Amino acid sequence: MSQRTIMHIDLDAFFVSVEQALNPELIGKPVVVGGKLGSRGVVATASYEARAFGLHSAMPLSTAFRLCPQAIFIEGNYQIYSEVSKKFMAILADFSPFLEPMGLDEAYMDVTGFESLHGTIHEMALKIKQRVKSELGIIASIGIASCKVVAKVASDESKPDGLIEVPVGQEASFLAPLAIRKLPGVGKKTEQVLVNQGIRTIGQLARMPSNALKAALVCWVMLCIGMLMALIIAW
Description:
48% of the residues lie in helices and 14% in strands. With 235 residues, the protein is α/β, with parallel strands linked by helices. It has two domains: 1-174, Alpha-Beta Plaits (2-Layer Sandwich); 180-234, no CATH class. It is flat.
């Protein structure tokens, strides 16, 4: 059985990118797509220019405005984003039928064996990026690896407008120096638990004995359950 090759294709700052494609005057400016400014809404997407001021997804709009009052705030239009997403997925489907969408702006694609149609998988990825840019006016970043997790991390590391291919056999060396928060599924709380154990990189996590890791995570889960029960009793 041949080695699998997986691509993770992710559209950079998707909602903002769509707005910029519709209104080129927004390009190069700090732009925020979210709820109505003055409401209790949160940031859905921030342009990279806005992120330079510390803005990020899920941040309260009031905080975003305080950090970057010069930003252009847009309520957004889900219907338009959904239509662009369908066109994006249709482009990907032209390259491989083995497509797994993950929300509106990203997808995994099994491209095993498709290099014969495009020269190399790398050239195939470049063609995808070019079609997304020319047909939709937005930018895609792509990670290529032998499995989904590494492909996802690679696409995240390549942003914005990047392409990283992790050769077979080099997955561990690619992941090792990266912060544990770069690992899909590791949130802030889990990260803090691991940091408390002296684990700051994926390489350190890989070397941690499984029994010690399980013990640390079990303690954290029990603590969370205890806090939840205390809140229920108090309520």
